[in-house]
Automatic annotation (TrEMBL):
Highest taxon of the lineage: Bacteria
Example of a GO cellular component annotation carried by this entry: cytosol
Example GO biological process: L-arginine biosynthetic process via ornithine
Source species taxonomy: Bacteria, Pseudomonadati, Campylobacterota, Epsilonproteobacteria, Campylobacterales
Keywords annotated in UniProt: Amino-acid biosynthesis, Arginine biosynthesis, Cytoplasm, Lyase
GO molecular function: argininosuccinate lyase activity
Domain Argininosuccinate lyase C-terminal, chain residue ranges per copy: 366-432
Gene from which this protein is expressed: argH
Localization, UniProt: Cytoplasm
Catalyzed reactions: 2-(N(omega)-L-arginino)succinate = fumarate + L-arginine
Family according to the record: Belongs to the lyase 1 family. Argininosuccinate lyase subfamily.
Protein name: Argininosuccinate lyase
One Pfam family here: Lyase_1
Keyword Electron transport: no
Domain Fumarate lyase N-terminal: from-to ranges: 7-302
């Protein structure tokens, strides 16, 4: 079989080379972008007088037919055609004739073609993933709205720290995912430039109109340096990083869902629809969805590290190493899309066991800091001393088998006679939460502000 680049060769390729070199098996995923790019290019060639208008129209008609064949499953992808670019061009030539089909590649190289296709793919997927992140934030926000008065322990070092509301805890994740959303949008804006017309690496002597192609494909403008345009994959790396960070956040949330659904915590009940059973232990109900998301995070990080490493040592401009850019991105995109959907759906059907959360608050002396703050505020005691006195109260509570919030005045005064009756109020769990009215705090007043911020953000971005 004659290759498109056969001219200077006198021997046929080894079959080993053909299979090793080909990317068609995975880059066929880019057929939509490839055909859209070729149509925009052909239109521009016609408008610029490089091709006749009629020729340009005929090429476009042919490209539409190729697309139809691919979408109806009639198209035969063959290893010997190497990649999506040559597969489409070859079929086009069969449909409209070799003479005209061969003109489409005027003023273009596969180097700028693949840079365009892959960039279009990353831009599209950035938008889709951003929308899924938005849906997840909406789910978290809905949970937050209905759990302002649900008390739960806030943790540091996985030890009970201070009482917070479930609303507040969910909002923490909402804000993480809000930043992830904003990162996706800013990547999209930065990368929305068209590389086509860079040709192999140095531009082209043909009198092309790059801005026309860019506008036709929905870009905001064109990339500025052809060598950079065909040889960097930072747009794909940004997407891989953005997905990695989404997974960092999702994985932490999933880790908590796994802990919370254990019999040690019993804070939540993951619905049967999103739980799995054990093949041997009939009683088991496992949080596989959350575990899988936590697990996929490893692969997603690997894809980022993989492409960073591919790119780090290659000289300008295009090198075949760069064909290794796609599979990891396809994999991370798929992981992000499936995980974001199922995480949101699972959360919607998760039951929060408020009584158990409250019960958990009653151990671990969650309001101890409030007593120290009280001593500072009401008794003008230096914070370090207040910390020490409170520590003694905690030790006393421990010795009595009580929580600090359950000590009576007499017991408190046996540690420090200056402690007054109002300290008992301060030690109450709800009051501890409500005392934290600082901006960004867990009191309902502060949580309302945060809910308002997420609400406003959602309204701005949800269509
Ligand atoms: N399949 C190639 C890739 O994915 C397309 C670009 C090939 N360019 C070249 N000069 N061989 O990178």
């Amino acid at each position: 079989m004659q290759k498109m680049w056969q001219g200077r060769f006198s021997a046929d390729s080894s079959e080993l080379l053909e299979a090793f070199n080909a990317s068609i098996e995975f880059d066929k995923e880019l057929y939509r972008q490839d055909i859209a790019g070729s149509k925009a290019h052909a239109t521009m060639l016609g408008n610029s007088g490089i091709l006749d208008k009629e020729q340009s129209k005929e090429i476009i008609r042919g490209l539409d037919l190729v697309k139809e064949e691919i979408e109806s499953g009639k198209f035969e992808f063959r290893t010997e055609d190497e990649d999506i670019h040559m597969s489409v061009e070859k079929r086009l030539s069969q449909i409209i004739g070799k003479e005209l089909g061969g003109k489409l590649h005027t003023a273009r190289s596969r180097n700028d073609q693949v840079a365009l296709d892959f960039r279009l793919f990353c831009q599209d997927e950035t938008k889709s993933i951003a929308n899924l992140v938005l849906n997840l934030i909406q789910t978290l926000n809905n949970i937050a709205k209905s759990h302002k008065d649900t008390l739960m322990p806030g943790f540091t070092h996985l030890q009970h720290a201070q009482p917070v509301s479930l609303s507040y805890h969910m909002l923490a994740y909402a804000f993480m995912f809000k930043r992830d959303f904003e990162r996706l949008l800013s990547s999209h804006a930065r990368n929305n430039l068209c590389p086509l017309g860079s040709a192999a690496l140095a531009g082209t002597p043909h009198n092309i109109n790059r801005n026309e192609v860019a506008a036709a494909l929905g870009f905001d403008g064109i990339t500025q340096n052809a060598m950079d345009s065909v040889s960097d994959r930072d747009f794909a790396l940004e997407l891989l990083f953005n997905i990695s960070l989404i997974f960092t956040h999702a994985s932490r949330l999933c880790e908590e869902l796994i802990l919370w659904s254990s019999s040690e915590f019993k804070y939540i009940n993951i619905s049967d629809t999103f739980s799995t059973g054990s093949s041997i232990m009939p009683q088991k109900k496992n949080p596989d969805v959350a575990e899988l998301i936590r697990g996929k995070t490893g692969r997603v990080y690997g894809n980022l590290m993989g492409l960073l490493t591919v790119m780090k040592g290659i000289p300008l401009a295009y090198n075949k190493d760069m064909q290794e850019d796609k599979e990891g991105v396809f994999d991370s995109v798929k992981a992000a899309k499936t995980s974001l959907v199922i995480l949101s759906e699972m959360l919607k059907t998760t039951e929060f066991l408020e009584k158990n959360m409250l019960k958990a608050c009653q151990s671990g002396h969650l309001s101890a800091t409030d007593l120290a703050d009280y001593l500072v505020r009401e008794q003008n005691v230096p914070f370090r001393e207040a910390h020490f006195i409170t520590g003694r109260c905690v030790a006393m509570a421990e010795s009595l088998g009580k929580d600090i919030s359950e000590l009576n005045l007499e017991e408190l005064q046996s540690v420090d006679k200056d402690i007054k009756a109002d300290a008992l109020e301060v030690l109450k769990l709800v009051n501890s939460k409500e005392a934290r009215k600082s901006l960004g705090g867990t009191s309902n007043q502060s949580v309302e502000i945060q809910l308002g911020q997420i609400e406003e953000f959602l309204q701005t971005h949800l269509k």
